[in-house]
Structure formats: structure tokens, C-alpha cells
Design goal:
275 residues, alpha/beta, Rossmann fold, N-(1-d-carboxylethyl)-l-norvaline Dehydrogenase, domain 2, six-stranded parallel β-sheet, 9 strands
Length: 275
Amino acid sequence: MSLEKPRIGWLGLGTIGLPMAARLVKAGFEVRGYDIDAARRTAAAGRGITVSQDLGGAELVFTSMPTEDVLLQLVKQLKLGDGLLVETSTIGPEASRKVAEAVGPYLRSPISGSTALAEAGTLTVFASGPRAAFEKARPALAAFSRAQIWLGEGEEARYAKLAVNLMVAVTAGMMGEALALATKGGIGWEAILDVIGESAVGSPLVKYKIDPLKRLDFSPAASHALLKKDLDLIVAAAKAAGVPVPLAEHMHAIYRDTLSSGRGEEDFFSVAARR
């Protein structure tokens, strides 16, 4: 391992955080990590991560938290020393500002992509905060992402992540309506999915979801509960910014309904299969 590589601390070794941290190990970084879940700690140790609550003077401290509340509680206790916080969670701009109040200047680095892309090291990073912080963290970010896009000095990355996730949620709902119309018109389920995949609307997201839709396999890559949480943030941020988001509000209501019907742990794209 090159001595020039910064020491990494990683807090939050969940389904997306663990493969990201493991990519850093694979790239030759020394990584100390921790998660409150014992099973996740065991999995991390099996992938070359030194499991410890003591981050050992880490120069870059990454966080990957499930909710704003969990993150805000964590940063109140976080002792960074001379380390730089690189925060990858999906949170709103107001919570992000509270993180800055707690820790000072830090790099907002939410990611776009699935667990499969995290394993492959081909996520996309939206970054904002001090430009110098971005340049310091960029070699580490590149270990788990194919693109690192710096957007500005403030909360720009938070808005970018929410904007992309708004499009993800609406794509699922839009595809459900399209599939319902096509199958009522007599087109077979697999045939219309092939048509969509080969058409102008066959985005990377759509193509990724076609095979599970054909098999009606709704094992969660991202659950209904997660999309509902993201839409909570999207609708709140849009309201604060004075931006009407009727499509986001429509999908927000749909995911609220799926949670109340007990489907919260299905993959969020199952809303496209309303057959």
C-alpha cells in the first residue's frame, strides 16, 4: 500500500456503504470502519476492513447513514481532529447545513447508483463543499465511482441527488402506467418490456429493471420504504424552495400507500407491475 494514500475512516457499513468501503480496500487504502450492527461488522472484517470505533487519526472520514436523524446524532459526537468529513448519505439541504454547523466545512458527496454498481466501483458522486476538500477526497471517491462531479461550494450536491431521485421515482410510476396501457392493448408482458428496453426511453435505469420485471422478482435493490423516505426529502426541499413538484407529490402518495399495504420491503420498481 502506498504511504501517500490517506487513512480512511468509514462509519455505516450497510448494503451500500460496505461495498463502497470495500472498494477502497481493494484500491489499496487503509480503511477502519464501524457499524452498530454486529453482522455488518463481521461482513466488513471479511472484506479487509479493520473494524474499530477508533478511526485511528483518519484523514478522510466517510459516513453512510440511513436517515437524517441518525446522521445528525452521529455528527454531534464525531471527533474528526484534522480529518475531513466526506458525507455520502441521502439527506436534504437543511439537514446538510446542520451537519456543517456541527463539524465545520465538509464535503457533501451523495452517490447515485445501485448496490451492484457500488460493488463494481461504478457509482456516480455528486460533490459540493470546499473545492480543496473535493480535490483531497477525489482519489478515494474514484475508488468506488466512475464519475466525480463537483457542483459548488454549498448544498448543490444535495439538490442534485434529490433531483435525480425524483426522476427515478417518477420513472417507476410512469412505466407502470405505460405497461398497463400496453398490456390492455393486447401486448404480452415480456414483449412490451423488450419494446421499452430497445426504445428511446430505455434509460440505464429502465434497462437495469427489465429483467427483474420480466421475472416479477421484487427483491429489493432499493425498497418502497427507502423511496418514500427520499420523496419525503424531495417534497420538503421543493416546498422550501418554492418549486411545484406535482409528479413527486403523486409518487409520494403512491409509496405511502404501498407502505400502508405492507409492501414496504419490496423493490421500489414493483409499482411498475400493476397488472
